Amino acid sequence: MRLSAGRDDAVHVCRRAAAAASGRNPPPSAGAERAGDSLPHLHNRGVGIFLDHVNLHQAIVTGCHVSYCRGGGIKVAGSEVRNLQITGNDIEYNYDPQAPASADVWIDCSEEGSTVREGTIVGNTIQAKYSPGGANVRIIGQHPQVNHRAGLWTISNNLVGSQEINVHLAACRGVTVSGNVIYSGHVRNLQLDGSRNIVLAANCFDHNPDYGEQELCTGVRLADSHDVVLSGSLVHDCQAGRHTVAGAPELVREGLLEIVRCRRVAVSGCEVLDGAPHGIYVEESEDVSITGCTVLDSRLEKKSTAAICFRGTGRGNLVSGNRLGAGAESAVEADAAAGVRVGENWTDGS
């Protein structure tokens, strides 16, 4: 295992031909002696901290300022890693507007043989600027039909903002996202693709009203995933119902919370406010339960068509015990084939 500081990558850990007898390298710690006393500030044109095709156990990144690294702030690629802790850091502006993808924290297990599990991203400030294909936190596994390869992660108590997608989980298993404030996602605040066993709890998905008419909308999208819990969270959209920041991409969505081609998703105890065209939109999904939620359009000029909308075919879906706004057309819209049972809800006019 080698640690080096160069003009391209500030800290580059890569595989050495002679591995330890155990098959794992000794644990590096950015901010400790192994990295040369401390690494308080990392700025460069490559990757800030790069675990590049390594096999290691126990890596800790703490108390660092990792910023302005075009290749990514903290990146793991093509590696087999266990017990990676990223805590108490300021990770900012790690993006490249000319690259097809960027991320402040980037865990990439898409390469055959790579796997990263047992990790924490806790107590960090993670923010950037919009770049096409960019994310503040991105964890990518392999095809879920084979093996997710990325999972057993906790993303908690962070401030995450300002990118195309703030938190992007693709082909992951066993991830908890909790207690975060997540804002200014040009496409989505959180996007979940092809994942399972995911818990999203007690997060605040918000926008900054200080800039007046210069607003970015909010949004959470769950796609092609199953066994997901979304609970105790606040999702509050901007007042315009569309991006008003100059240069922002056009917002394309069907709801503030979108659940598309999913199975066994439980949404409970959430506030979904000022969504457009719908608060919660469900498409081609099964066993989706929406209970104990408040889904309202509190704007003077209403923009919601319906609080909750089900489209396409489905089965085993439930809407019950919610406080729902009426919307321009109805509180709940559902296709006949969507398989929705609407229980007792408190709606406007009831």
Q: Helix coverage percent of residues?
A: under 10%
Strand content is: over 45%
Give the beta-strand count: 35
Rg is 21 Å
Q: Cα distance, first to last residue?
A: 67 Å
Shape estimate: globular
Class of secondary structure makeup: mainly beta
Please give the count of helices. Answer: 0
> How would you describe the oligomerization state of the chains in this entry?
single chain
> How is the main sheet built?
23 strands, mixed
* Chain-averaged pLDDT: 85
Q: Low-confidence spans: pLDDT under 50, at least 5 residues?
A: 1-7, 16-38
Give an overview in words.
With 350 residues, the protein is mostly beta strands. The chain is 0% helix and 52% strand. The chain contains no helices and 35 strands. The chain has strands at 2-4, 11-14, 29-30, 41-42, 47-52, 55-62, 65-67, 72-77, 80-87, 90-92, 102-108, 115-122, 125-127, 134-140, 150-156, 159-170, 172-178, 181-193, 196-201, 204-206, 220-223, 226-231, 234-236, 257-260, 263-268, 271-273, 278-283, 286-291, 294-296, 306-311, 317-320, 323-324, 330-334, 340-342, 346-347. The strands form 2 sheets. The protein has a 23-stranded mixed beta sheet that branches. The protein has a 12-stranded parallel beta sheet with strand order 3-6-9-12-15-17-19-22-25-28-31-34, with no helix packed on it. It is globular, with a radius of gyration of 21 Å. The chain starts with a strand and ends with a strand. Mean pLDDT is 85; it is low at 1-7 and 16-38.
